[in-house]
């Protein structure tokens, strides 16, 4: 692997973390760990000790207390820069929908030594209009605001899976339906959870012509997991197909085999194994190959989905490289592929697919 492009990630915390804060940032759980156990006694914790301890000058597998005290003595700025640079990521596609207390995009790029591209979260843009817009003009104001926001961005992202699940009708809501639903939402306020409005903003995202990233599969506790099965999206994917807009299914696990089938049969559908490869730790070498079953190799994308902790970029990158190397080595050993095939597949998944799908390096 020569060039690595992180197709989906978030920024990192700009500040020091105590042990409890570090533990919480490692896990998809939302509460402190139950008495007597630690979230770091898990695949992610083992992976951090394995990959990140050496980056900070400790032996691999150093104890977590030693690791955290080393991190403290370096200070967050040095630790963050060292870990991010060790990940060797040439470019980062950053979802800016979560930004509280995080490094801004320019600072993240400088710290990582990477090119940074923005991914605009649709629900975040819509939420920003609450209180500023009327029901009757919601659709047009949202469309104008979104078109302004995506200037210079490389993709949009939807967290529909968290808000109403992926079991959505194929059709676009009508203008009358949208203004009625917008009226209800604007009257009651709060987070945007109305399925019809969420579906409308997803279609408005498609109208930008940029690739659409969709959260699918596991995540934090806000999710109803069965509703995050990407195969539920099938009617929508079929309806969106004529637009030609690429749709990237993020994470996918444990529905990555369903996602692989969608990537096989729909020309505009791609799969991205971010988050999954990080959280599965040593098991990533077993699960990554499952992303390479049905999906054509030009459809599989690398990302870390790192968020808050710079450790998660390094873990995501290293576990991907190890898992891919193990997979391709086995295929070469079995004479299923040639060494040249292995090289080509590695370059595609690491960078070329992202460059093509997100049109990186093109003027916008
Ligand atoms: Zn994410």
Secondary structure: elements and pairs:
Elements: E1 5-9, H1 19-26, H2 43-55, H3 64-87, E2 91-95, H4 105-112, E3 115-121, H5 122-127, H6 138-149, E4 155-158, H7 160-163, H8 175-188, H9 195-207, E5 212-216, H10 234-240, E6 247-251, H11 256-265, E7 269-272, H12 276-279, H13 284-291, E8 300-301, H14 311-333, H15 339-357
Parallel strand pairs: 1-2, 2-3, 3-4, 4-5, 5-6, 6-7, 7-8
Helix pairs in contact: 2-3, 2-14, 3-14, 6-9, 13-14
This protein binds zinc ion.
Number of strands: 8
Low-confidence stretches: none
* Topology pattern, helix = H, strand = E: EHHHEHEHHEHHHEHEHEHHEHH
Q: Strand order across the biggest sheet?
A: 1-2-3-4-5-6-7-8
Shape: globular
What are the distinct ligands in this entry? zinc ion
Evaluate the radius of gyration. 20 Å
Mean pLDDT: 96
Most strands sheet = 8 strands, parallel
| Strand fraction | 5-15%
> Gap between N and C termini, in Å?
28 Å
What structural class results from the helix and strand content?
alpha/beta
Count of individual helical segments: 15
Helix content: 40-55%
């Amino acid at each position: 692997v020569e060039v690595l492009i992180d197709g989906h990630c978030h920024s990192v915390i700009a500040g020091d973390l105590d042990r409890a804060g570090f533990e919480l940032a490692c896990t998809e759980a939302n509460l402190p760990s139950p008495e007597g156990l630690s979230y770091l006694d898990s695949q992610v914790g083992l992976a951090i000790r394995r990959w990140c301890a050496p980056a900070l000058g400790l032996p691999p597998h150093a104890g977590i207390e030693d690791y955290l005290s080393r991190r403290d003595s370096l200070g967050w700025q040095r630790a963050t820069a060292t870990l991010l640079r060790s990940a060797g990521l040439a470019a980062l596609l950053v979802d800016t929908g979560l930004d509280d207390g995080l490094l801004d995009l320019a600072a993240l790029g400088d710290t990582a030594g990477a090119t940074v591209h923005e991914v605009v979260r649709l629900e975040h843009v819509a939420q920003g209009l609450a209180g500023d817009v009327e029901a009757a003009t919601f659709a047009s104001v949202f469309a104008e605001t979104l078109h302004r926001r995506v200037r210079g961005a490389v993709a949009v992202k939807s967290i529909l899976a968290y808000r109403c699940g992926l079991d959505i009708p194929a059709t676009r809501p009508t203008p009358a339906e949208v203004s009625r639903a917008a009226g209800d939402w604007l009257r009651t306020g709060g987070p945007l959870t109305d399925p019809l409005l969420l579906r409308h903003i997803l279609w408005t995202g498609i109208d930008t012509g940029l690739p659409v990233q969709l959260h699918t599969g596991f995540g934090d506790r806000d999710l109803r997991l069965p509703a995050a099965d990407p195969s539920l999206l099938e009617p929508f994917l079929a309806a969106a197909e004529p637009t030609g807009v690429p749709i990237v299914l993020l994470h996918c696990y444990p529905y990555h085999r369903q996602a692989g089938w969608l990537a096989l049969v729909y020309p505009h559908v791609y799969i991205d194994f971010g988050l999954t490869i990080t959280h599965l730790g040593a098991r990533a070498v077993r699960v990554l190959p499952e992303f390479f079953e049905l999906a054509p190799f030009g459809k599989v994308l690398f990302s870390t989905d790192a968020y808050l902790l710079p450790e998660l970029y390094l873990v995501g990158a290293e576990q991907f490289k190890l898992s891919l190397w193990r997979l391709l080595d086995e295929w070469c050993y079995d004479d299923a592929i040639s060494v040249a095939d292995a090289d080509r597949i590695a370059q595609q998944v690491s960078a070329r697919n992202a460059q093509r799908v997100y049109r990186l390096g093109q003027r916008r």
